[in-house]
């Protein structure tokens, strides 16, 4: 437990650290990754760039959570999500002191002469306590994933049994355990991670992929969208792992896969109507939810899909078949760009970008639960639309296919963190 004096020290130093968030981030990563290059296997360089993403979120959130160490009950949801992401990456207890040491080093550097031993001790104590909470939750998740029937620890080799093009930019990989052993179940919405080191890459990389078909005890299916370089940045390479999977991983190849995790899961105890909203590849996490809802419940459900165009439109026939199974299951798809044939053969229902008004037009009666998933920009637009529609946080469930933007906290702020939780 932190002493009252340590808590006061932390509160007093927060403004200075807040003012230098970027410097802390840069100092922290630079020093840690040069002292521990083995950690480059864990961090995605695409997320370390200056304009935000993971680099900002990890260092800033460590500070934010450490400053809120006495209110972790109110931050429960965020701790759970980070622990889950860490488990998917195989972050282990021995990594925590490394991060702690370099974070304290960064704090010392930013505060300069003002960094007294008492200040560093107070931040060290807060970090230590937070690390204990995270390690404890991660240990429980590791136990769960490894001891459940068909579960395993670490990365298990899977053979690509089938590779199927689902659309111009989306490809499914059907994965069976290479050891022929049993396979753990998962909840609709959960994901696995894949670890790969493409030839020419100095480090291995881990990426998460949602399980895109209901569990059947024999195989998993992931569906990967080919990630291009961002528009207007011709010197940036396209996505490393998604392109490697598309271009170089073939049927018969072996992929190391981490057991399913994830807290973006369908609440099957609720009887409320459901609105599923998917942007781009976000359908992957939503499809097993739709399958479950269409086949094993009577809840009204509507799937709203926002796609750039036909190129991204995976699973059109499967969604149509599920919508035909019973009344009360509907789907509407918008394309940003479409030609006449897309409208004629019924692929795309409408043109344009999903906004609050369009969502409102398709809402089921009653207070629905909202599940939404997709790239970061899409998630921000949906959050805004749901704000406009007055949907309370308790009925929102989401997963961003990138470092989660909800973790991008500028600095420790107990009230804001409590509201986020
Ligand atoms: C929980 C979860 C579930 C997911 N499920 C799915 C899924 O089911 N299907 C799916 O397709 N994806 C899914 N993702 C996303 C997936 O994990 C990968 O992030 C995605 O495949 C991109 O990885 P990559 O290695 O191809 O791209 P990266 O190499 O990570 O690059 C990402 C983007 O950043 C750009 N970039 C790289 N370096 C820079 C730079 N210096 N400056 C600017 N831009 C840069 C790249 O060009 C690319 O556009 C999921 C993610 C999460 C967190
Ligand atoms: C108390 C300590 C820690 C906190 C509060 C913390 C916080 C976070 C947060 C907020 C994220 C983003 C999650 C998301 O986007 O979904 C994250 C991701 C991550 N964390 Fe931690 N973390 C801590 C410790 C560690 C440690 C010890 C390691 C090991 C080196 C680590 C490695 C990572 C990695 C590799 C990612 C994903 C980054 C990427 O995609 O590049 N973290 N962490």
UniProtKB/TrEMBL annotation:
Per the UniProt record, which EC number(s) apply here? 1.14.12.17
Question: Where does the Globin domain lie?
Answer: 1-139
Protein keywords:
Detoxification, FAD, Flavoprotein, Heme, Iron, Metal-binding, NAD, NADP, Oxidoreductase, Oxygen transport, Transport
Look up keyword Heme and say if it applies: yes
Would the keyword Oxidoreductase be found if you checked this record's keyword annotation? yes
Q: What is this protein called?
A: Flavohemoprotein
| NCBIfam families assigned to the protein according to its UniProt record, in alphabetical order | PRK13289.1
Function (record text): Is involved in NO detoxification in an aerobic process, termed nitric oxide dioxygenase (NOD) reaction that utilizes O(2) and NAD(P)H to convert NO to nitrate, which protects the bacterium from various noxious nitrogen compounds. Therefore, plays a central role in the inducible response to nitrosative stress.
Biological processes annotated in GO: cellular response to nitrosative stress; nitric oxide catabolic process; response to toxic substance
Kindly state which reaction or reactions the protein catalyses: 2 nitric oxide + NADPH + 2 O2 = 2 nitrate + NADP(+) + H(+); 2 nitric oxide + NADH + 2 O2 = 2 nitrate + NAD(+) + H(+)
Tell me one Pfam family matched here. Answer: NAD_binding_1
Concerning CDD domains, the annotation shows: FHb-globin (cd08922), flavohem_like_fad_nad_binding (cd06184)
Q: Which family does it belong to?
A: In the C-terminal section; belongs to the flavoprotein pyridine nucleotide cytochrome reductase family.
Q: Which gene encodes it?
A: hmpA
> Per the database record, which ranges form the FAD-binding FR-type domain?
153-267
Q: Which PROSITE patterns match?
A: FAD_FR, GLOBIN
The enzyme's first-digit EC class, named in words, is: oxidoreductase
Instruction: Tell me which domain of life the UniProt entry assigns to the organism this sequence originates from.
Output: Bacteria
Any one Gene Ontology molecular-function term assigned to this protein's record: oxygen carrier activity
InterPro entries in alphabetical order? FAD-bd_FR_type (IPR017927), FNR_nucleotide-bd (IPR039261), Globin (IPR000971), Globin-like_sf (IPR009050), Globin/Proto (IPR012292), OxRdtase_FAD/NAD-bd (IPR001433), Riboflavin_synthase-like_b-brl (IPR017938)
Needed cofactors, names only, are: FAD; heme b
């Amino acid at each position: 437990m932190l002493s009252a004096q340590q808590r006061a020290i932390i509160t007093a130093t927060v403004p200075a650290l807040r003012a230098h968030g970027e410097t802390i981030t840069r100092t922290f990563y630079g020093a840690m990754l040069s002292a521990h290059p083995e950690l480059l296997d864990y961090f995605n360089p695409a997320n370390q760039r200056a304009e935000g993403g993971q680099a900002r979120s990890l260092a800033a959130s460590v500070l934010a959570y450490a400053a809120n160490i006495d209110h972790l009950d109110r931050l429960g949801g965020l701790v759970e999500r980070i622990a889950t992401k860490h488990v998917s990456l195989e972050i282990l207890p021995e990594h925590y002191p490394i991060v702690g040491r370099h974070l304290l080093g960064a704090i010392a550097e930013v505060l300069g002469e003002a960094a007294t031993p008492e200040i560093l001790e107070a931040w060290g104590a807060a970090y230590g306590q937070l690390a204990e909470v995270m390690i404890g939750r991660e240990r429980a998740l590791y136990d769960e994933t490894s001891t459940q029937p068909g579960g395993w620890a670490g990365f298990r080799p899977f053979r690509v049994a089938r590779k199927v093009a689902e659309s111009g930019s989306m490809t499914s990989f059907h994965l069976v355990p290479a050891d022929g052993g049993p396979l753990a179940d998962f909840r609709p919405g959960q994901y696995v991670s894949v670890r790969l080191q493409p030839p020419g890459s100095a480090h291995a990389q881990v990426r998460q992929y949602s399980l895109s078909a209901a569990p059947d005890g024999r195989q998993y299916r992931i569906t990967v969208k080919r990630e291009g370089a961002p528009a207007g940045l011709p010197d940036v390479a396209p996505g490393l792992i998604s392109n490697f999977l598309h271009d170089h991983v073939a049927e018969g190849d072996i992929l190391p896969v981490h057991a399913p995790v994830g807290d973006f899961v369908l609440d099957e105890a609720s009887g409320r109507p459901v609105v599923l909203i998917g942007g781009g590849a976000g359908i992957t996490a939503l499809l097993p939810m739709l399958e479950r809802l269409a086949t094993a419940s009577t809840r009204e459900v509507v799937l709203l899909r926002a796609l750039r165009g036909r190129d991204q439109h995976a699973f059109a026939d499967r969604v149509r078949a599920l919508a035909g199974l019973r009344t009360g299951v509907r789907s509407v798809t918008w394309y940003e760009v479409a030609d006449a044939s897309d409208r004629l053969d019924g692929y795309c229902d409408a043109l344009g970008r999903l906004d609050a008004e369009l969502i409102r037009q398709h809402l089921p009666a009653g207070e629905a639960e909202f599940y939404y998933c997709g790239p970061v920009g899409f998630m921000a637009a949906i959050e805004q639309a749901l704000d406009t529609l007055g949907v309370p946080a308790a009925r929102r469930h989401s997963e961003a296919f990138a470092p989660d933007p909800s973790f991008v906290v500028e600095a420790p702020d107990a009230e804001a963190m409590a509201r986020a939780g």
